[in-house]
Design brief:
The complex is a heterodimer. By secondary structure, chain A is mostly helical. Chain A has 11 helices and 2 strands. In chain A, helix 5 runs antiparallel to helix 6, helix 5 packs antiparallel against helix 7 and helix 6 runs antiparallel to helix 8. By secondary structure, chain B is mainly alpha-helical. A two-stranded parallel ribbon of chain B has the order 1-2. Classes of the chains: A mainly alpha, B mainly alpha. Chain B: This is Ferritin-like domain-containing protein.
């Protein structure tokens, strides 16, 4: 174990690691001195206590803890949504309610990839939050049939993908909406941004899976466009209108994007596609709550 | 110049707010740029514009001064210029093997990148760097594999650039605007990757050199110097980076 390497790795995502550990670096020095004296076996324990001091609840601002726990709730939901499907498709599984068939191996592999990322996000957020992490959400706490709104979510592949698209596009909007609250913690802000764009990649692929499943009619663009009747929701699923509310914005920071710079090709649809919009916490919570059991809602 | 700087010092706090109100005039711009000898390139570009030159090509290079949000936004503007120039060329004459759907989506992406470029240009107003000269001599625009490989490189690099620069932004409004754009770039990246090899939309292991971490489910993130070192191959204009 090379302590300096570990610190350098952390420094890549948290430029303030040394300040966190000790503003005057005296403790660092004393730590290294202790490290020389104590047995190698004790080093991991000493390291763990050092990081707990640096990243424990006391050093994360309350607003940052709130954002990360909010994100963690969403990641738990996404993880269980995909995991239940993949577990249900595993031969001999006790999960028997996933009755649709994937059209090919690639589609199941893609859902597995996405599931694995969501699990990694859950683990990362739990580790980062430490003792401040919210209580875990179990599959039993969820209701992906949304009280019957999506009763066929695990029996109809198209419904499953439609809900998946809703989750991914919501995730992108939720992280975007919270970025400003993380300005106080640059290292954590960057991690959140790195999760945010992974969710956008997922959304892009799920949209392509939907187009493949429809045989190309209708087409779901990889980016958020305008709906067929010019509405903000381009998913073709009116039940998820709330996921796309405000996505049809065409003015950014006072600049009208339609036809900007004399480019007639930038239509309203192109302007909408060019910028993804954030979603405020309350709106995201009400969407997430559709998929949580009574008593387990956010 | 010195006199003007002194005269404008009281307007300091108005400057940040006014960036996106598009009311940054030449005077406050001079105050921003005149903060040191390093700002001379920017002043020169600004002065040219004041004399009525549209889109001056920067023979003396472009300076990205990361001391404040203007530098980060100009950095994004530079990358969007590069992406837009590439897709304009692809969309105007796509590789013959492109399907109708691919042509349509590359047309879409072209307009997204133009919109991003024009947005930054309008928002930065006189603080914007000029037009970059690109070098696409290494790209075979008749070859689908060359075009797709370049598109993937640009999109993944763009994602890494925004992710790596976000925490340098001080103002929440600008951060949000960068966030609105980066997820669109990530959607592009996933689309292009799937065209090259279906299922690689978020192959984070292949993005390790751009700062991604598959075990943590984290996308690419690179500091501006590293991004510009990669992008430099496609940019003729000399880009000076200061205060990084």
């Amino acid at each position: 174990m090379n302590i300096v390497n570990i610190l350098e790795e952390i420094e890549k995502v948290d430029g303030e690691i040394y300040e966190r550990l000790n503003p005057r670096r005296a403790a660092m020095k004393s730590f290294f001195n202790v490290g020389k004296k104590i047995s190698l076996a004790a080093v991991p324990l000493a390291l763990s206590s050092m990081f707990q001091k640096a990243y424990g609840q006391t050093t994360l601002p309350a607003a940052v803890v709130d954002v990360l726990n909010f994100a963690l709730s969403l990641e738990y939901l996404e993880y269980h949504f995909y995991n239940h499907c993949i577990v249900g498709k595993t031969p001999g599984s006790a999960v028997t309610d996933v009755t649709f068939n994937f059209p090919n191996a690639a589609s199941q592999a893609a859902i597995t990839t996405i599931r694995d990322h969501e699990k990694a996000h859950v683990d990362l957020l739990v580790t980062t939050l430490g003792s401040a992490a919210r209580a875990p959400i179990a599959y039993a706490d969820t209701d992906f049939r949304a009280g019957g709104t999506f009763s066929t979510v695990y029996s109809d592949y198209n419904t499953f993908l439609a809900v998946a698209q809703g989750f991914e596009d919501t995730g992108v909007r939720a992280y975007k909406g919270q970025a400003g609250n993380l300005l106080v913690s640059p290292g954590i802000l960057q991690v959140a941004l790195q999760i945010h764009s992974v969710e956008a990649r997922h959304a892009s692929h799920i949209r392509q899976m939907r187009t493949a499943a429809s045989g190309g009619s209708p087409v779901y663009k990889p980016w958020v466009s305008l709906g067929a009747s010019g509405q903000a929701n381009d998913s073709g699923v009116p039940q998820v209108d709330a996921v796309y509310a405000g996505e049809d914005l065409t003015v950014q920071a006072g600049a009208n994007i339609v036809g900007i710079g004399g480019n007639a090709g930038i239509t309203k649809a192109a302007a909408v596609e060019s910028f993804d919009e954030p979603l405020d916490k309350a709106s995201v919570v009400s969407i997430a709550n559709l998929f949580l059991q009574p008593g387990k809602k956010l | 110049m010195t006199m003007k700087n002194n005269e404008l010092e009281t307007k300091n706090e108005l400057q940040e707010k006014s960036l996106f109100d598009k009311t940054v005039g030449r005077r406050s711009f001079l105050q921003y740029a005149g903060a040191g000898a390093a700002g001379i390139a920017l002043v020169a570009a600004g002065c040219k514009k004041d004399r009525g030159y549209e889109n001056p090509t920067m023979n003396g290079g472009a300076t990205l001064d990361f001391k404040d949000d203007f530098g980060v936004l100009n950095y994004a503007y530079a990358l969007e210029q590069l992406e837009a120039a590439f897709y304009v060329k692809v969309a105007s004459a796509p590789p013959s093997s492109f399907t109708a759907a691919q042509k349509a989506y590359f047309q879409d992406i072209q307009f997204h990148e133009i919109a991003h470029r024009e947005f930054f240009k309008a928002a930065l107003s006189t603080a914007a760097i000029g037009s970059l000269e690109v070098d696409f001599s290494s790209i075979d625009f008749t070859s689908a594999s060359s075009v797709l490989a370049t598109a993937m490189a640009f999109e993944d690099l763009g994602v890494s650039a925004y992710n790596g620069a976000g925490s340098r932004i001080k103002n929440a409004t600008y951060l949000l605007l960068a966030g609105k754009i980066v997820s669109v770039e990530a959607r592009h990246a996933a689309y292009v990757r799937d065209l090259i090899s279906n299922g690689t939309f978020a192959d984070l292991n292949s993005l390790t050199s751009l700062g991604a971490d598959n075990a943590k489910g984290l996308d690419a993130a690179l500091t501006p110097d590293k991004v510009l070192a990669v992008a430099g191959k496609y940019i003729k204009t000399k880009i000076n980076v200061i205060n990084l």
